Amino acid sequence: MFGALITKIVDLLYPYRCLKCGKVLDSAGYLCDHCVDEINFIAPPYCAKCGTPLHVDNASNLKYCATCSGKTKKFYRLARSAVVYDNSDKNLIIAFKFFDKTENANLLAAMLKVAGKDIFDAGADLIIPVPLHKSRLLKRRYNQSAILSDKLSKMVNIPVDCFALVRHRKTRPQVEFSGKERITNVKNAFSVKYPDRIINRRIILIDDVMTTGSTLKECAVALRHAGAKSVDLLTVARVID
Tens digit of pLDDT for each residue in 153-200? Predict the structure, then answer.
C-alpha cells in the first residue's frame, strides 16, 4: 500500500510526457497520439534493396527502385530506415545528438527495431555504430550511434561492438558539405582496428541519419575489406529527395 502511494506521488510530480511536444501522457510511452500521426514512417512499398519508398502508381508491382534495378554492385546487402527525415522528427534526433537528450534513445532504438525487420530476418551477427573521431567524441562526450546500438542490441539480442571500427582521420561535419564534397570529406577516414572481430560476420551498421550515404559507404567498405561477410545499413531517418 505504501509503495503504491509513493508511485502515485511520483507520477504526479514526474508524469510521463511526450518526447516531442511535452504533453502529459495518460500512461507510460514515448509520444502522444498526435505526434505519432505527424511522423512520416517508412512503410511498404519500398525498394527491397535500399529501402527507398516507391512513390509510383504501380509500386505494388515493383521490387526495386530505378537505381537498384541496375547491375551496379552495392557495397551493402540491405539498407533500411525508420522515418523520412523532416520537420516531424528532426527535433527528436537533433536534441538527442547535440543537446544531451539521451532519454530519446529508447524511442529511436525502438524505431530501429521495427525498421530493421528485413535485416534481422536475413540474419545478423554483430551491431556496429558509425564511430566518431576521438577529438569529436571528447567534445560531444558521447556517440549517439553507439548509444542507439547499445539500446538496439538489448532489444534484438545481437551483440554490439563499439571499438572494432574506428574513424582514424578527423573530418569536418558532413552538414558543411553537399554532394561530391561529402564523399571527399570522409574518403578513407575509417578503418578496422580489430579484424578478428569482423571476419565472416554479418554486420549491421547503425547511424542516426542517412543523407547521401557517403559516411555509411566508407564504413561499410572498411568492414568488407576487413573480411565482413555482409554489411547492412540501419538508420533512424533518411533524407528523401
Answer: 999 999 999 999 999 988 777 876 677 778 777 888 899 999 999 999
**pTM score, whole prediction:** 0.89
- What tens digit of pLDDT does each residue of 202-233 get? 999 999 999 989 999 999 999 999 999 999 99
- In the CATH scheme, what architecture does the domain 40-238 have? 3-Layer(aba) Sandwich (3.40)
Are 129 and 97 spatial neighbours (Cβ–Cβ below 8 Å)?
no
Domain residue ranges in the chain: 1-38, 40-238
